[in-house]
Protein backbone atom coordinates (compact mmCIF):
# COMPACT_ATOMS: atom_id res chain seq x y z
CA UNK A 1 0.00 0.00 0.00
CA UNK A 2 1.23 3.50 -0.80
CA UNK A 3 2.49 5.64 2.07
CA UNK A 4 -0.29 7.82 3.42
CA UNK A 5 -0.33 11.02 5.45
CA UNK A 6 -0.26 10.36 9.23
CA UNK A 7 -3.62 10.14 10.96
CA UNK A 8 -4.91 13.54 11.99
CA UNK A 9 -3.04 15.44 9.27
CA UNK A 10 -4.31 16.72 5.94
CA UNK A 11 -2.75 17.89 2.69
CA UNK A 12 -3.72 21.29 1.33
CA UNK A 13 -3.88 20.62 -2.39
CA UNK A 14 -3.28 23.14 -5.18
CA UNK A 15 -7.00 22.97 -5.97
CA UNK A 16 -7.89 24.37 -2.51
CA UNK A 17 -4.85 26.39 -1.42
CA UNK A 18 -6.43 29.54 -2.85
CA UNK A 19 -8.98 29.34 0.00
CA UNK A 20 -6.20 29.46 2.57
CA UNK A 21 -4.54 32.34 0.74
CA UNK A 22 -7.83 34.25 0.75
CA UNK A 23 -8.15 33.84 4.53
CA UNK A 24 -4.50 34.71 5.08
CA UNK A 25 -4.88 37.94 3.13
CA UNK A 26 -7.90 38.95 5.22
CA UNK A 27 -6.11 38.03 8.45
CA UNK A 28 -2.94 39.93 7.55
CA UNK A 29 -4.98 43.01 6.69
CA UNK A 30 -6.93 42.85 9.98
CA UNK A 31 -3.70 42.49 11.99
CA UNK A 32 -1.93 45.29 10.13
CA UNK A 33 -4.81 47.72 10.70
CA UNK A 34 -4.28 47.36 14.45
CA UNK A 35 -0.47 47.59 14.23
CA UNK A 36 0.40 43.90 14.64
CA UNK A 37 3.50 42.67 12.80
CA UNK A 38 4.32 39.10 11.85
CA UNK A 39 6.55 36.79 13.89
CA UNK A 40 7.59 33.30 12.77
CA UNK A 41 8.77 30.93 15.48
CA UNK A 42 10.17 27.38 15.14
CA UNK A 43 7.89 24.40 14.79
CA UNK A 44 9.59 22.78 17.79
CA UNK A 45 10.88 24.14 21.10
CA UNK A 46 12.51 22.80 24.24
CA UNK A 47 9.92 20.86 26.22
CA UNK A 48 10.63 22.94 29.31
CA UNK A 49 9.09 25.98 27.62
CA UNK A 50 5.66 24.36 27.53
CA UNK A 51 5.95 22.58 30.88
CA UNK A 52 6.72 25.92 32.58
CA UNK A 53 4.52 28.12 30.41
CA UNK A 54 1.41 26.11 29.56
CA UNK A 55 1.29 24.32 32.92
CA UNK A 56 1.89 20.72 33.96
CA UNK A 57 -1.69 20.30 35.21
CA UNK A 58 -3.19 20.92 31.75
CA UNK A 59 -4.33 18.19 29.39
CA UNK A 60 -2.02 19.65 26.76
CA UNK A 61 1.13 18.98 28.78
CA UNK A 62 -0.08 15.78 30.43
CA UNK A 63 -1.59 14.04 27.41
CA UNK A 64 -1.40 15.88 24.10
CA UNK A 65 2.19 16.96 23.37
CA UNK A 66 4.38 15.41 20.70
CA UNK A 67 7.62 15.12 22.69
CA UNK A 68 10.80 13.30 21.73
CA UNK A 69 14.49 13.16 22.64
CA UNK A 70 16.79 14.42 19.89
CA UNK A 71 20.27 13.15 19.02
CA UNK A 72 21.77 15.54 21.56
CA UNK A 73 19.65 13.91 24.29
CA UNK A 74 17.51 17.06 24.59
CA UNK A 75 13.75 16.88 25.17
CA UNK A 76 12.04 18.57 22.23
CA UNK A 77 8.32 19.20 21.68
CA UNK A 78 6.37 20.12 18.56
CA UNK A 79 4.58 23.27 19.64
CA UNK A 80 1.08 22.54 20.98
CA UNK A 81 0.11 26.24 21.07
CA UNK A 82 1.55 29.52 19.80
CA UNK A 83 1.83 31.87 22.76
CA UNK A 84 4.73 30.27 24.65
CA UNK A 85 6.95 30.34 21.54
CA UNK A 86 6.04 33.97 20.89
CA UNK A 87 6.98 34.88 24.47
CA UNK A 88 10.28 33.00 24.20
CA UNK A 89 11.07 34.87 20.98
CA UNK A 90 10.08 38.19 22.56
CA UNK A 91 12.47 37.57 25.45
CA UNK A 92 15.36 36.04 23.53
CA UNK A 93 15.39 38.96 21.09
CA UNK A 94 15.11 41.58 23.88
CA UNK A 95 12.03 43.09 22.24
CA UNK A 96 10.94 44.30 25.68
CA UNK A 97 13.70 46.92 25.42
CA UNK A 98 11.98 48.46 22.37
CA UNK A 99 8.94 50.72 22.38
CA UNK A 100 6.00 49.06 24.11
CA UNK A 101 3.45 47.72 23.63
CA UNK A 102 4.93 45.20 21.22
CA UNK A 103 2.26 43.77 18.91
CA UNK A 104 2.92 40.64 16.89
CA UNK A 105 0.93 38.03 15.01
CA UNK A 106 1.60 34.61 13.56
CA UNK A 107 -0.25 33.11 10.64
CA UNK A 108 -0.69 29.61 9.26
CA UNK A 109 1.42 28.43 12.19
CA UNK A 110 1.32 24.62 12.58
CA UNK A 111 0.11 23.43 16.00
CA UNK A 112 0.40 19.80 17.12
CA UNK A 113 -1.89 18.01 19.58
CA UNK A 114 -2.04 14.26 20.08
CA UNK A 115 -5.77 13.69 20.43
CA UNK A 116 -8.52 11.84 18.62
CA UNK A 117 -9.04 13.55 15.23
CA UNK A 118 -12.55 14.92 14.76
CA UNK A 119 -14.40 17.48 12.71
CA UNK A 120 -12.52 20.76 12.83
CA UNK A 121 -9.79 19.35 15.09
CA UNK A 122 -6.71 17.69 13.61
CA UNK A 123 -3.48 16.51 15.21
CA UNK A 124 -1.73 19.05 13.03
CA UNK A 125 -3.77 22.19 12.57
CA UNK A 126 -2.92 25.81 11.83
CA UNK A 127 -3.56 28.99 13.72
CA UNK A 128 -3.79 32.71 13.28
CA UNK A 129 -2.74 34.31 16.54
CA UNK A 130 -2.13 37.78 17.96
CA UNK A 131 -0.03 38.67 21.00
CA UNK A 132 0.39 42.07 22.65
CA UNK A 133 3.10 42.65 25.25
CA UNK A 134 3.37 45.59 27.63
CA UNK A 135 -0.20 46.95 27.77
CA UNK A 136 -2.23 46.51 30.94
CA UNK A 137 -5.48 48.31 30.06
CA UNK A 138 -8.61 46.36 29.17
CA UNK A 139 -8.83 48.38 25.96
CA UNK A 140 -6.30 45.97 24.44
CA UNK A 141 -8.38 42.96 25.51
CA UNK A 142 -11.36 44.60 23.83
CA UNK A 143 -9.30 45.41 20.74
CA UNK A 144 -8.41 41.76 20.24
CA UNK A 145 -11.95 40.53 20.78
CA UNK A 146 -13.28 43.11 18.34
CA UNK A 147 -10.62 42.31 15.75
CA UNK A 148 -11.51 38.61 15.85
CA UNK A 149 -15.26 39.30 15.84
CA UNK A 150 -15.18 41.71 12.90
CA UNK A 151 -12.84 39.44 10.93
CA UNK A 152 -15.10 36.41 11.31
CA UNK A 153 -18.19 38.48 10.62
CA UNK A 154 -16.64 39.91 7.45
CA UNK A 155 -15.74 36.41 6.28
CA UNK A 156 -19.38 35.41 6.65
CA UNK A 157 -19.41 33.35 9.86
CA UNK A 158 -22.93 33.56 11.29
CA UNK A 159 -24.53 32.82 14.66
CA UNK A 160 -21.39 34.19 16.28
CA UNK A 161 -21.29 35.02 19.99
CA UNK A 162 -18.59 36.41 22.27
CA UNK A 163 -18.23 34.87 25.72
CA UNK A 164 -16.04 36.51 28.32
CA UNK A 165 -14.97 35.82 31.89
CA UNK A 166 -12.38 36.91 34.41
CA UNK A 167 -10.41 34.27 36.29
CA UNK A 168 -8.70 36.76 38.58
CA UNK A 169 -5.05 37.14 39.47
CA UNK A 170 -2.58 35.70 42.01
CA UNK A 171 -4.00 38.11 44.62
CA UNK A 172 -7.62 36.98 44.51
CA UNK A 173 -7.45 33.51 42.97
CA UNK A 174 -6.15 31.70 46.11
CA UNK A 175 -9.31 32.68 48.00
CA UNK A 176 -11.43 31.34 45.17
CA UNK A 177 -9.38 28.14 45.05
CA UNK A 178 -10.17 27.61 48.73
CA UNK A 179 -13.91 28.13 48.13
CA UNK A 180 -13.84 25.83 45.09
CA UNK A 181 -12.04 23.08 47.01
CA UNK A 182 -14.56 23.39 49.84
CA UNK A 183 -17.32 22.91 47.28
CA UNK A 184 -15.60 19.95 45.58
CA UNK A 185 -14.44 18.05 48.64
CA UNK A 186 -17.77 16.28 49.09
CA UNK A 187 -17.97 15.56 45.36
CA UNK A 188 -14.56 13.98 44.82
CA UNK A 189 -16.00 10.50 44.31
CA UNK A 190 -17.92 11.81 41.29
CA UNK A 191 -14.81 13.25 39.63
CA UNK A 192 -12.56 11.48 37.13
CA UNK A 193 -9.05 10.49 38.21
CA UNK A 194 -7.52 13.46 36.39
CA UNK A 195 -9.79 15.90 38.23
CA UNK A 196 -9.04 14.30 41.57
CA UNK A 197 -5.38 15.11 40.89
CA UNK A 198 -6.30 18.62 39.71
CA UNK A 199 -8.25 19.16 42.93
CA UNK A 200 -4.98 19.17 44.86
CA UNK A 201 -2.72 20.91 42.35
CA UNK A 202 -4.98 23.37 40.50
CA UNK A 203 -8.71 23.11 41.25
CA UNK A 204 -9.55 25.65 38.54
CA UNK A 205 -8.68 22.97 35.97
CA UNK A 206 -11.63 20.88 37.20
CA UNK A 207 -13.96 23.46 35.66
CA UNK A 208 -12.32 22.82 32.27
CA UNK A 209 -12.93 19.07 32.24
CA UNK A 210 -15.09 17.97 29.31
CA UNK A 211 -16.31 14.68 30.84
CA UNK A 212 -20.08 14.73 31.49
CA UNK A 213 -19.70 13.36 35.03
CA UNK A 214 -17.29 16.11 36.05
CA UNK A 215 -19.33 18.80 34.37
CA UNK A 216 -22.36 17.69 36.37
CA UNK A 217 -20.38 17.88 39.62
CA UNK A 218 -19.32 21.49 39.02
CA UNK A 219 -22.68 22.74 37.71
CA UNK A 220 -23.34 24.70 40.90
CA UNK A 221 -19.73 25.52 41.77
CA UNK A 222 -18.98 29.04 43.05
CA UNK A 223 -18.03 31.65 40.44
CA UNK A 224 -14.65 33.36 40.32
CA UNK A 225 -16.50 36.58 39.55
CA UNK A 226 -17.70 36.70 43.16
CA UNK A 227 -14.10 36.63 44.44
CA UNK A 228 -12.39 39.17 42.18
CA UNK A 229 -10.16 41.73 43.84
CA UNK A 230 -10.84 45.40 43.17
CA UNK A 231 -8.22 45.63 40.41
CA UNK A 232 -9.55 42.58 38.55
CA UNK A 233 -13.14 43.74 38.96
CA UNK A 234 -12.34 47.20 37.57
CA UNK A 235 -10.46 45.63 34.64
CA UNK A 236 -13.38 43.34 33.82
CA UNK A 237 -15.86 46.22 34.02
CA UNK A 238 -13.68 48.31 31.69
CA UNK A 239 -13.61 45.44 29.19
CA UNK A 240 -17.41 45.17 29.21
CA UNK A 241 -17.78 48.94 28.83
CA UNK A 242 -15.49 48.93 25.77
CA UNK A 243 -17.42 46.10 24.11
CA UNK A 244 -20.76 47.74 24.82
CA UNK A 245 -19.54 51.06 23.42
CA UNK A 246 -18.70 49.34 20.13
CA UNK A 247 -21.91 47.27 20.03
CA UNK A 248 -20.12 43.92 20.27
CA UNK A 249 -22.67 41.34 21.45
CA UNK A 250 -21.28 39.36 24.38
CA UNK A 251 -22.31 37.29 27.37
CA UNK A 252 -20.47 36.78 30.65
CA UNK A 253 -19.81 33.05 31.09
CA UNK A 254 -18.25 32.25 34.47
CA UNK A 255 -17.43 28.68 33.33
CA UNK A 256 -14.86 29.78 30.74
CA UNK A 257 -11.36 29.15 32.16
CA UNK A 258 -9.50 28.05 28.99
CA UNK A 259 -7.19 25.05 28.97
CA UNK A 260 -3.91 26.81 29.75
CA UNK A 261 -2.50 27.71 33.17
CA UNK A 262 -0.93 31.03 32.19
CA UNK A 263 -4.18 33.00 31.88
CA UNK A 264 -5.03 35.81 34.32
CA UNK A 265 -7.99 38.19 34.41
CA UNK A 266 -9.68 38.18 30.98
CA UNK A 267 -10.45 34.95 29.16
CA UNK A 268 -12.72 34.84 26.13
CA UNK A 269 -14.06 32.63 23.38
CA UNK A 270 -15.82 33.30 20.09
CA UNK A 271 -18.39 30.57 19.58
CA UNK A 272 -20.68 29.79 16.68
CA UNK A 273 -23.74 27.55 16.57
CA UNK A 274 -23.53 24.69 14.07
CA UNK A 275 -25.73 21.72 13.27
CA UNK A 276 -23.44 19.60 15.45
CA UNK A 277 -23.55 21.99 18.42
CA UNK A 278 -21.52 24.97 19.54
CA UNK A 279 -18.00 25.29 18.13
CA UNK A 280 -15.26 27.50 19.54
CA UNK A 281 -13.47 29.15 16.61
CA UNK A 282 -11.27 31.58 18.56
CA UNK A 283 -10.07 31.76 22.15
CA UNK A 284 -7.65 33.76 24.21
CA UNK A 285 -7.12 36.00 27.16
CA UNK A 286 -4.66 37.87 29.32
CA UNK A 287 -1.44 36.29 30.63
CA UNK A 288 0.14 39.02 32.73
CA UNK A 289 2.72 36.81 34.47
CA UNK A 290 3.93 34.49 31.71
CA UNK A 291 6.71 36.81 30.56
CA UNK A 292 8.25 36.99 34.04
CA UNK A 293 7.55 33.29 34.63
CA UNK A 294 9.76 32.48 31.63
CA UNK A 295 12.59 34.67 32.90
CA UNK A 296 11.71 38.11 31.56
CA UNK A 297 10.59 41.37 33.14
CA UNK A 298 7.20 41.77 34.79
CA UNK A 299 5.13 42.72 31.73
CA UNK A 300 1.40 42.30 31.09
CA UNK A 301 0.32 40.53 27.92
CA UNK A 302 -2.80 39.37 26.10
CA UNK A 303 -3.53 37.38 22.96
CA UNK A 304 -5.71 34.91 21.07
CA UNK A 305 -5.52 31.95 18.70
CA UNK A 306 -7.90 31.18 15.83
CA UNK A 307 -7.99 27.84 14.02
CA UNK A 308 -7.77 28.27 10.26
CA UNK A 309 -9.22 24.83 9.47
CA UNK A 310 -12.20 25.62 11.68
CA UNK A 311 -12.84 28.91 9.93
CA UNK A 312 -12.78 27.17 6.54
CA UNK A 313 -15.11 24.46 7.85
CA UNK A 314 -17.55 27.10 9.11
CA UNK A 315 -17.49 28.92 5.78
CA UNK A 316 -18.26 25.63 4.03
CA UNK A 317 -21.14 25.09 6.45
CA UNK A 318 -22.51 28.53 5.59
CA UNK A 319 -22.24 27.76 1.88
CA UNK A 320 -19.85 30.68 1.38
CA UNK A 321 -17.88 30.42 -1.84
CA UNK A 322 -14.39 31.88 -1.71
CA UNK A 323 -13.54 33.44 -5.09
CA UNK A 324 -11.35 31.09 -7.11
CA UNK A 325 -8.72 32.88 -9.20
CA UNK A 326 -7.94 31.68 -12.69
CA UNK A 327 -4.77 29.60 -12.78
CA UNK A 328 -3.74 31.36 -15.99
CA UNK A 329 -4.94 34.54 -17.58
CA UNK A 330 -3.39 33.56 -20.91
CA UNK A 331 -2.50 30.17 -22.34
CA UNK A 332 -0.28 30.40 -25.42
CA UNK A 333 -1.11 27.80 -28.04
CA UNK A 334 1.08 27.23 -31.07
CA UNK A 335 1.79 25.16 -34.17
CA UNK A 336 4.64 22.72 -33.69
CA UNK A 337 7.27 24.81 -35.50
CA UNK A 338 6.45 27.91 -33.45
CA UNK A 339 7.30 26.71 -29.96
CA UNK A 340 10.25 29.15 -29.66
CA UNK A 341 7.96 32.09 -30.50
CA UNK A 342 5.43 30.81 -27.94
CA UNK A 343 8.10 30.50 -25.26
CA UNK A 344 9.32 34.06 -25.84
CA UNK A 345 5.75 35.38 -25.67
CA UNK A 346 5.07 33.58 -22.37
CA UNK A 347 8.18 35.10 -20.81
CA UNK A 348 7.28 38.58 -22.11
CA UNK A 349 3.78 38.29 -20.62
CA UNK A 350 5.11 37.15 -17.26
CA UNK A 351 7.50 40.10 -17.14
CA UNK A 352 4.42 42.33 -17.40
CA UNK A 353 2.79 40.58 -14.43
CA UNK A 354 0.39 38.46 -16.48
CA UNK A 355 -0.15 34.84 -15.45
CA UNK A 356 0.72 32.88 -18.57
CA UNK A 357 1.85 29.45 -19.69
CA UNK A 358 2.19 27.29 -22.77
CA UNK A 359 2.07 23.64 -23.72
CA UNK A 360 5.14 21.71 -22.53
CA UNK A 361 3.92 18.25 -23.60
CA UNK A 362 3.98 18.38 -27.43
CA UNK A 363 0.20 18.26 -27.71
CA UNK A 364 -1.68 18.96 -30.90
CA UNK A 365 -3.17 22.44 -31.33
CA UNK A 366 -6.65 21.04 -30.66
CA UNK A 367 -5.43 19.34 -27.48
CA UNK A 368 -3.75 22.57 -26.38
CA UNK A 369 -7.05 24.43 -26.62
CA UNK A 370 -8.79 21.65 -24.71
CA UNK A 371 -6.19 21.89 -21.96
CA UNK A 372 -6.45 25.70 -21.86
CA UNK A 373 -10.19 25.39 -21.35
CA UNK A 374 -9.75 22.70 -18.69
CA UNK A 375 -7.41 24.84 -16.56
CA UNK A 376 -9.72 27.83 -16.88
CA UNK A 377 -7.52 30.15 -18.92
CA UNK A 378 -9.31 33.42 -19.65
CA UNK A 379 -7.67 33.95 -23.04
CA UNK A 380 -5.82 31.82 -25.57
CA UNK A 381 -3.00 33.39 -27.57
CA UNK A 382 -2.26 31.40 -30.73
CA UNK A 383 0.89 31.56 -32.85
CA UNK A 384 0.81 29.72 -36.16
CA UNK A 385 3.18 29.97 -39.13
CA UNK A 386 1.46 33.09 -40.48
CA UNK A 387 1.51 34.80 -37.08
CA UNK A 388 5.17 33.89 -36.53
CA UNK A 389 6.17 35.43 -39.88
CA UNK A 390 4.11 38.59 -39.27
CA UNK A 391 5.14 38.93 -35.60
CA UNK A 392 1.49 38.77 -34.50
CA UNK A 393 -0.63 36.63 -32.21
CA UNK A 394 -4.30 35.67 -32.45
CA UNK A 395 -6.11 36.40 -29.17
CA UNK A 396 -9.26 34.47 -28.29
CA UNK A 397 -11.61 35.19 -25.39
CA UNK A 398 -12.30 31.72 -23.96
CA UNK A 399 -15.64 32.85 -22.49
CA UNK A 400 -17.33 34.34 -25.57
CA UNK A 401 -15.12 33.15 -28.43
CA UNK A 402 -14.28 36.65 -29.72
CA UNK A 403 -10.96 36.84 -31.56
CA UNK A 404 -8.55 39.58 -32.61
CA UNK A 405 -5.04 39.63 -34.05
CA UNK A 406 -2.46 41.95 -32.47
CA UNK A 407 1.32 42.45 -32.67
CA UNK A 408 3.18 40.14 -30.28
CA UNK A 409 4.94 43.05 -28.58
CA UNK A 410 1.54 44.59 -27.81
CA UNK A 411 -0.10 41.40 -26.56
CA UNK A 412 0.44 42.28 -22.91
CA UNK A 413 -1.21 45.69 -23.37
CA UNK A 414 -4.14 44.11 -25.18
CA UNK A 415 -4.59 41.63 -22.36
CA UNK A 416 -4.54 44.37 -19.75
CA UNK A 417 -7.22 46.26 -21.67
CA UNK A 418 -9.32 43.11 -21.94
CA UNK A 419 -8.79 42.53 -18.23
CA UNK A 420 -10.15 46.00 -17.45
CA UNK A 421 -13.16 45.43 -19.68
CA UNK A 422 -13.87 42.13 -17.94
CA UNK A 423 -13.81 43.87 -14.55
Name the poorly predicted regions. Answer: none
What fold name stands as the CATH topology of the largest domain? BirA Bifunctional Protein, domain 2
CATH homologous superfamily annotation of the largest domain: Bira Bifunctional Protein, Domain 2
Cα(first) to Cα(last) distance is 48 Å
Instruction: Return the average pLDDT rounded to an integer.
Output: 93
Biggest sheet details: 8 strands, mixed
Radius of gyration: 28 Å
Largest sheet strand order: 1-5-6-11-10-9-7-8
Secondary structure: helix percent: 25-40%
How many strands? 16
Can you give a write-up of this model?
The protein has 423 residues and is an alpha+beta fold. The chain has two domains: 17-172 and 228-317, Bira Bifunctional Protein, Domain 2 (BirA Bifunctional Protein, domain 2, 2-Layer Sandwich), CATH 3.30.930.10; 330-415, Rossmann fold (3-Layer(aba) Sandwich), CATH 3.40.50.800. Helices cover 37% and strands 23% of the residues. It contains 15 helices and 16 strands. Strand 3 and strand 4 form a beta hairpin. Helix 5 (138-155) runs parallel beside helix 9 (230-245). It is elongated. The two termini are 48 Å apart.
Task: Outline the fold blueprint.
Layout lengths: L16 H17 L3 E2 L5 E3 H7 L5 H6 L1 E4 L5 E4 L4 H10 L9 E11 L11 E10 L4 H18 L4 E7 L6 H12 L8 H9 L10 H6 L12 H16 L4 E3 L11 E11 L2 E10 L3 H4 L7 E7 H10 L12 E5 L4 H13 L4 E3 L6 H10 L4 E5 L1 H6 L1 E6 L5 E5 L3 H12 L1
Parallel strand pairs: 1-5, 7-8, 12-13, 12-14
Antiparallel strand pairs: 2-4, 3-4, 5-6, 6-11, 7-9, 9-10, 10-11, 14-15, 15-16
